[in-house]
Design goal:
The protein is an alpha+beta fold. It is globular. Helix content is 27%, strand content 11%. Helix 8 runs parallel beside helix 11 (304-319). Strand 3 (251-253) and strand 4 form a beta hairpin. It has helices spanning 23-38, 61-64, 87-95, 102-105, 110-127, 143-146, 159-166, 176-191, 222-225, 294-298, 304-319, 332-335; strands at 132-134, 196-198, 251-253, 256-261, 328-329, 342-347, 357-362, 368-369, 374-378, 386-387, 391-396. The strands form 4 sheets. It has a 5-stranded antiparallel beta sheet with strand order 5-6-7-11-9. It has a two-stranded parallel ribbon with strand order 1-2. The longest helix has 18 residues, at 110-127.
């Protein structure tokens, strides 16, 4: 600063960090949270939840600067001076809320999701609250694309997807048919769980990451205003304005015919109040958005949008009213040697006959035999009592 003072920022310089060693900061946040809770807010989303507390006395600032890369936050042993400090738990104990992003970190492996579910429920029980489930947010590649990319174990979460995004989707094949099948299975697996489910805008339409936005049309400061441009393209690919009206189709843009200009799929008016043409949206929309427009999906009973609606309605009617946040795992006795490739659980329901609700997801390459019970509906076609790969079925057992 001009007067010789300085402040810490981890991202853009317009975002100074707060000093969580100052008790006044704690009190101010509790005051703010209490205000919104009293006004009916059901919960709060904490961005960069692992990055609040810092140990700035542990090393010179020049050394600390080398530890500022967000990938350093994947170190969970409490030794990093900037990320995932043990002190953050004290802050959240004050707030008494649990946020669980393990679903958003998981690739399409049964063990990843099984672990995320178990740890999420255990953390919620320890804190005396309910857990949260989320598969995408504004910081990660959309899961419709992640699940359609090659599934390999990597050193940190989404390493392959981030590399694919950095190269504008040119280095790995994105299988959108496969990705769509898996996200349909994933949302049913998620919506059957107790706790709060967060739906990131556009996932209900089955949108994929717009990986090929030209670099000169990006808005996210990540690639340009920090040193992350060497390793990350940024987060604009999941933030492109949503398509609402298929008929409001743009014309191919002269700078790239894969993107549109002159219309916005109903996102904004085509003209200003004075009748002059309106500007294009702040981020370019690809022309393939037409196939995912909300009005088109609304008219298709088998669309992603209507799957979300159907599953949410069932959850509200048959699961949430029980108030029971426990699950019972269904495993080896039902699926035998296929059990490691299946994520299956049951929980109480409002069924008048006392039957339990069950969700079964097949992550393996071959169909599995379903346990005894009534099949309600599935994320895709099923073969009698055999559940195909990358499919979830809901049952009463």
């Amino acid at each position: 600063m001009p007067d010789g003072q300085w402040y810490l920022h981890m991202f853009a310089k317009e975002q100074p960090d707060l000093n969580w060693k100052n008790p006044e900061v704690h009190e101010e946040f509790k005051k703010t949270l209490r205000f919104w809770s009293d006004h009916g807010a059901d919960g709060f989303r904490i961005d960069v939840a692992h990055g609040l507390a810092k140990d700035l006395d542990s090393a010179p600032l020049t050394e600390l600067a080398l530890r500022g890369n967000p990938l350093e936050g994947l170190c969970h042993d409490g030794t990093n001076p900037l990320w995932d400090r043990p002190e953050v738990h004290d802050i959240y104990r004050e707030w008494r809320e649990v946020f669980n992003f393990e679903f958003a970190k998981a690739d399409w492996f049964a063990e990843d999701f099984r672990t995320a579910i178990r740890e999420g429920l255990e953390s919620a029980e320890e804190s005396g609250s309910t857990t949260t489930w989320v598969m995408s947010n504004h910081d990660v590649v959309r899961h419709a694309s992640r699940y359609g990319l090659p599934q390999v174990k990597t050193q940190w979460c989404h390493q392959l997807a981030d590399a694919w995004l950095l190269r504008s989707g040119s280095n790995f094949i994105e299988d959108r048919t496969l990705g769509t099948r898996r996200v349909r299975a994933a949302i049913m697996m998620e919506l059957g769980l107790p706790g709060s489910v967060y739906v990131y805008q556009g996932e209900e339409l089955g949108l994929f990451e717009v990986a090929d936005i030209p670099w000169d049309r990006l808005e996210d400061p990540t690639p340009f205003r920090t040193d992350h441009g060497r390793t990350a393209k940024g987060r604009d690919g999941c933030r492109v304005p949503l398509p609402w009206v298929a008929a409001d189709t743009p014309t191919p843009a002269p700078w790239d015919a894969k993107f549109g200009t002159g219309a916005s799929f109903g996102f904004s008016p085509a003209t200003r109040p004075d009748g002059t043409p309106a500007a294009d949206p702040h981020l370019p929309q690809p022309l393939w958005f037409k196939d995912h427009a909300a009005d088109a999906e609304d008219a298709d009973p088998d669309s992603m949008l209507n799957l979300y609606r159907r599953a949410l309605a069932f959850r509200q009617r048959m699961l949430t009213p029980t108030g029971d946040t426990s699950i019972r795992w269904i495993g080896e006795s039902e699926f035998g040697e296929r059990a490691p490739q299946v994520v299956a659980y049951s929980r109480p329901s409002t069924d008048e006959g006392g039957d339990r609700f069950a969700s079964v997801t097949n992550f393996g390459p071959e169909p599995v035999e379903l346990p005894a019970g009534e099949v309600l509906f599935a994320s895709g076609p099923i073969e009698g009592r055999r559940l195909p790969a990358d499919t979830t079925v809901w049952m009463m057992v």
